[in-house]
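Input for the complex:
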Amino acid sequence: MAQRTVEVIVGLFMVAGIAAMMVLALQVSGLTLKAPESSYTLYANFNDAGGLTPRAKVSMAGVTVGKIREITLNRETFQARVVIDVDASVDNIPADSAAVIRTSGLLGEQYIDISVGGDMESLGDGDTFYSTQSAMNLERMISNFASGQ
Amino acid sequence: MEKLASFGRRGLDILASLGRSGRFLAGVVGGVPKPSVGFPLLLRQLYSIGVLSLAIIVVSGLFIGMVLGLQGYTILSDYGSEAAIGQMIALTLVRELGPVVTALLFAGRAGSALTAEIGLMKTTEQLSSMEMMGVDPLRRVIAPRLWAGFIAVPVLAAVFSVVGIWGGMMVGVEWLGVFEGSFWGNMQSSVSFTSDVLNGVIKSIVFGFVCTWIAVYQGYDCVPTSAGISSATTKTVVYSSLAVLGLDFVLTAVMFGDF
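Predicted:
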């Protein structure tokens, strides 16, 4: 076979490989080409972080507005301290909003839902949520119900 | 006593062979020919071991993806969570089956051919006549084949994963009626580019390296008889498959294990 034909076919082969990597990156792992949006940091203290994990989503009214950066234990209060990155475009979250841990679907992963308050002031970089609601623990609910509490 | 001695001799033979293969690898990887000479040779090899392997990779990828879709659906629909089929197919293919099955198919399709070709060159004394002419066969014959293998396997593995996911989508979404939005959505939320896709690529690079190295070395080191070529070809397929499966466990433990 002529060298030229081999070159073209091998070129096509490499292009197929690069295209496959692009599909894996963009379509399968959902990587976006746009630069990471600038964000600001909020904190929330939960009595029970449940199955919340870093990189889990943070949403308002079902729209994703940020993600969880890290979860640590507060050694003084023994609460879970969750660090949240919120998109800079959402800069008017009322100061009395609550952070609630919810589960998507019956077996889905857990995420933080911000239930909106009515305060005129809004949360800024480094603020902590005033009120939070911990993860729903089915076993604990059943045992509370069974023991009549 | 006699048995013990032969056992020891066997062990020493294996050790010596390992040492020879290491020196061989160092000689080949270091001794790349000049780009003007080497590049056309590399392209020829990429064509014969990469492009020509594409058909078997695409067909097996398609069927494996379709089987994953079918099996996943029957298992997951027992729990009413058949929407998770997308992430199941994508994670299995990208993390495990893509690199491993590609490497196994590559060893069978291209590795055996490499061994037989180089073994026959050795048996018919083409390699030694090249040396007489002042052409280093390591550079001229072996190096392009080795590098073509390193490059081709990751490309083939990526194609395998993509075709497999497409096959799984065809079965899951088109035939069994999983909602397409949740198929892709679940997949995208659970597959991470760095820890899943890139780790899969690293795996396929390692497998490509090992498979081609074994194939080329077995050909170069074979006993120069027709029986020698046949046993070298068998060894290539057996050693490559075992090395790929063993290394896969080690790499998985390092990449995804929690310790």
